[in-house]
Amino acid sequence: MTPDRLRVGVLGAAFIADRALIPAMLAARNATPVAIASREPARAEAMAARHGIATVHRTYEALVSDPDVDAVYVALANHAHRPWTLAALEAGKHVLCEKPLGLNASEVQEMAAAASKHRRTLMEAFMYRFHPRMIALHDTARDVRHLHAAFSFTLREDGDYRWRVELGGGALLDVGCYTLDLARWFLGEPTSVHAVAREVGVDMSVATVLGFGTGAEATTWASFEAPEHQVMELVCADSVRRVEQPFTAWRDPHDPYQLMVEAFAASVLDGSAPPRSLDDSTGTARLMDRVRLAAGPTR
User: Which are the contacts of 125, defined by CB distance < 8 A and separation ≥ 6?
Assistant: First the structure.
């Protein structure tokens, strides 16, 4: 690690890494991708060639033990976040892990404890929180009466891991984590949680009604059974704000992925606390646990 640039290894040749995170690292002023590993070496080699990444490892173990890697970006299926984050921390690497950080609050707490034990930075990759538009809205919102957040897309039957419970599939963990995290960010911890879910092997749609001690309410909806749809509506005492594409808007002209990577790298390089705290990540994981329980017997 140099004083001004973090060397990042990419764990998993995922679409999100190829489309968003690796380009963000290449554009970042204080980070650079130096290695990639995948269970599919040909896929990793093609991705490395596209982005000019020097090293391709054929195993995850080789990447997390690479002495030329300072930090690991975990871009694996949800069930693999915990074990490979723990492995990377044990190897002395800092970790930026895709959302959701863990499958439940217990996993997140275990990961947070490991980060503390090994004195390494661990941050959940909720990039939408780094978009200047969202930060400005959050910082200026006053006397919020109601918040609504929705995120949906149609999940195709093509072998995607999100169809499989044992791999951490389902709408709650995939897109529901955004809507619930947003509600917590603006309104704090809910005092009441009501939820319904429709399941076909995994939860395909999840809707919630959340109550807060301030008297505010929030409704959220996450689904794999509808066209691409993202919206946030914020009703305050004296105004109504509506945001389209609150979760994945990028290069408009801001790139929240690049801003997130730079913030993560800065926290590692200067030894400061990461801007997305592990207490915050634990809070959202705990809320997902409460939603799962409120929706009734599922898994």
Answer: 21, 73, 96, 97, 98, 99, 260
> How do beta strands 31-37 and 55-57 pair?
parallel
Residue 149 in tokens: 């957040």
Integer Cα distance of 16 and 158 in angstroms: 17
Query: Quick check: is 99 catalytic?
Result: yes
Q: Which amino acid appears at position 48 of this protein?
A: A
180, 207 Cβ separation under 8 angstroms = no
CB atoms within 10 A of CB 56: 21
Residue 93: both structure tokens together = 């690497």
Beta bridge pairs of residue 176:
none
The string of pLDDT tens digits covering residues 2-46 is 779 999 999 999 999 999 999 999 999 999 999 999 999 999 999
DSSP one-letter code for 5: B
* Chain segment 71-127, per-residue pLDDT in tens: 999 999 999 999 999 999 999 999 999 999 999 999 999 999 999 999 999 999 999
152 beta partners: 223, 229
Annotated catalytic residue within 57, 81, 82, 99: 99
Provide the 8-state DSSP code for 129.
Answer: G
